[in-house]
C-alpha cells in the first residue's frame, strides 16, 4: 500500500527531486478543487510548516499553485507530526502550549515560522503540538517554510489598542476631573434640591465611567 502511495507521489511530481531524498513519504494527499494549503493541513493533521517544508519546490511560498489531481506528500517517516491544532481567535502561544501540555520551546521548534513574540499566528494556521521535536528541518538558506501568511488570514490576536479599556484589573482613573476641581459652575443643573457632597461625587463619576 505504501509503495503504491509512493509511486503516485513520484509520478505526479517528477520534479520532486529536491525533497525526495529527505525521507520516505508515509502519507500523501490528492489535491481537490477548492483546496487551500491550510484546509489540507487542518483536514489531514499536518501542520502548516510541515506541509510547506515537505513540498518546497512543489508548492510555492504563497500556496497559489495547487493543481487538482496532483498528489502531494504530507509526512516523512520519522519526521511526521500528526498531532496538530488549528488556531482560533484569541489564541496565544502560551495557551496553545499549555492546552496541549507542551512547552513553548518545543512549540517553536516544531513551528519555526512562529516569531519570538507569537505575534504572527493567524486564525486557521495549523500548528504541530507534539511534545517532542518531530517535523522535518527547514531547507536552509534562511528560508522558513510556512512563513507566508495568507492574504485573507486574520491574526489570532488583534493588535493591542488603548491599554486596559474596560478591563476590570486596571486601576481606576485619577479620582478628580476638572469639572469637580474648578470653582466655575458646572454646566449641568443641580439634580437635587440641596447640597450633598458625597452624592454629587458619586453621580458625577457614573457618566464619566460610562464614557470609558
Ligand atoms: C486528526 O486528529 C484528530 C484528533 O486526534 C482525529 O480525531 C482525526 O481522526 C485525525 N484526522 C486524520 C485525517 O487523521
Ligand atoms: C522545554 O522542554 C525542553 C525539553 O524538556 C527543555 O530543554 C526546555 O528548556 C523547555 N523550555 C521551557 C521554556 O521550559
From TrEMBL:
Q: Could you tell me which residues belong to the region Disordered?
A: 154-212
Tell me where the signal peptide lies. Answer: 1-22
Give the matching CDD domains. LysM
- Matching InterPro entries: LysM (IPR018392), LysM1-like (IPR052210), LysM_dom_sf (IPR036779)
The cross-references to PANTHER family, in alphabetical order and at most eight, read: AM15, PEPTIDOGLYCAN-BINDING LYSIN DOMAIN
- Keyword field: Chitin-binding, Signal, Virulence
Q: Species lineage, top-down? A: Eukaryota, Fungi, Dikarya, Basidiomycota, Agaricomycotina
Specify the superkingdom: Eukaryota
Please give one Gene Ontology molecular function term for this protein: chitin binding
Check the record and name the PROSITE patterns matching this protein: LYSM
> Any idea what this protein is called?
LysM domain-containing protein
The LysM domain extends over: 27-74, 83-129
Stretches with biased composition (Acidic residues): 198-212
